[in-house]
Design brief:
This protein folds into three domains: 62 residues, no CATH class; 211 residues, P-loop containing nucleotide triphosphate hydrolases (Rossmann fold); 47 residues, no CATH class. α8 links the parallel β5 and β6. A seven-stranded parallel sheet has the order 3-2-4-1-5-6-7, sandwiched between helices. It has 328 residues and is of the alpha/beta class. It contains twelve helices and seven strands. α2 runs antiparallel to α3, α3 packs antiparallel against α7 and α5 packs parallel to α6. The structure holds guanosine-5'-triphosphate (GTP) and magnesium ion. The site of guanosine-5'-triphosphate (GTP) has 18 residues, from α5. The site of magnesium ion has 4 residues, from α5.
């Protein structure tokens, strides 16, 4: 995003040098007041600008970690987006404030389908649901870090439920179940999903298994298979058949989600600690990697490489010397 343009939008007169702190302190009250345009702009900043992203997180972090995250995953074309529409609208009407984040909708489908998502977007926004695509890795470099930060922004903006759509585990590097409080796996009776499900590791991650396209042949059979294969060994999981097209099964799905929300809210602090640990490890790895690259590219290292090739020292001694300079 053009920072000059953003500074004007925020009535910041001194422009030229980028002023992350000022921009952040102007944009946050607008987000708090429910201004979606500002929320969208902050999301873009989070994706595109590393410095802004850090500044935003520093300012909002303490007020986040409250929203319940519902991860919706499953194979491409299973009906995740259609189902999320129904779910989001009904949850919103039921008194929640719902934000929907869709991970990279263009990477696995055609541009036409993306436009379809756009049309759906306007339906959702009309009833107060916030909708946003996550198209890039974000300024921090990792998709899951980017999603966590987008969730934080939505949380800060007052959304108590954040629904994240992502194509199934095994097909992308995003294992949504690791960052979701509730994971719903959506399956399609049309595409031999039994095998696909096992291959993609989807049998392990769901709190709810949704056999969608219940109006099509094969749905009941797939539902029985899911119950036999997954629910029998994990009684806490729940499986049901829905049709996002006709609406059948959606009330039962909502009912289950509403039961899980307070349960997951109670266990959230423990899950959050684990998530923070792994997120922290990612951030630290990035910092250490950049420190290491700068050392390896430095003059001293070049000299030591010369010495190694001249047979004056060995690689372990050199690595130990350089490591001691990282301060770790
Ligand atoms: N018959 C039938 N079609 C459905 C149902 N739900 C969704 N569809 C159709 O299935 C197609 C794919 O739906 P999407 O909601 O885009 O599926 P998706 O899982 O989000 O797809 P990706 O984001 O590409 O992974 C669309 O043409 C929908 O209209 C359903 O319950 N029954
Ligand atoms: Mg979709």
């Amino acid at each position: 995003m053009n920072l000059l343009y953003l500074s004007r939008y925020l009535n910041l007169s001194v422009v030229g040098v980028c002023m992350p702190k000022e921009i952040v302190s102007r944009i946050l009250p607008k987000i708090k007041a429910g201004d979606r345009l500002s929320l969208g702009r902050a999301m873009t900043l989070m994706e595109e600008n590393a410095q802004m992203s850090r500044e935003l997180i520093k300012s909002i972090f303490r007020e986040t970690g409250k929203a319940i995250v519902i991860g919706v995953t499953g194979p491409g074309g299973a009906g995740k987006s259609t189902l999320i529409n129904e779910l989001a609208v009904r949850l919103q009407k039921g008194g929640h404030k719902v934000a929907v984040l869709a991970v990279d909708p263009t990477s696995h489908i055609t541009g036409g389908a993306f436009l379809g998502d756009r049309a759906r977007m306007s339906l959702l926004t009309d009833c107060g649901v916030y909708m946003r695509s996550i198209g890039s890795r974000g300024a921090t470099g990792a998709v899951s870090a980017s999603i966590r930060n987008m969730i934080r922004l939505a949380d800060y903006a007052g959304y108590d439920l954040v629904v994240v759509e992502s194509v199934g585990a095994g097909q992308t590097e995003v294992d949504i179940s690791k960052i979701a409080d509730i994971t719903a796996v959506v399956l399609n009776p049309k595409t031999g999903d039994q095998l696909q499900m096992v291959k993609a590791g989807l049998t392990e991650i769901g709190d709810i298994y949704v056999v969608n396209k219940g109006d099509l042949e094969g749905a009941s059979m797939l539902l029985s298979a899911v119950r036999d294969y997954i629910c029998d060994s994990k009684p806490e999981t729940f499986a049901l058949k829905t049709s996002a097209k006709t609406g059948t099964g959606i009330p039962a799905l909502i009912e289950r989600v509403e039961i899980l929300i307070p349960e997951k809210r109670a266990t959230k602090p423990a899950r959050e600690k684990e998530m923070l640990k792994s997120e922290l490890s990612g951030i630290l790895s990035t910092l250490v990697r950049s420190k290491v690259s700068s050392l390896v590219e430095g003059e001293e290292c070049a000299k030591m490489i010369e010495e190694m090739t001249a047979g004056k020292t060995d690689i372990v001694t050199v690595a130990e010397k350089i490591y001691s300079q990282t301060g770790l």
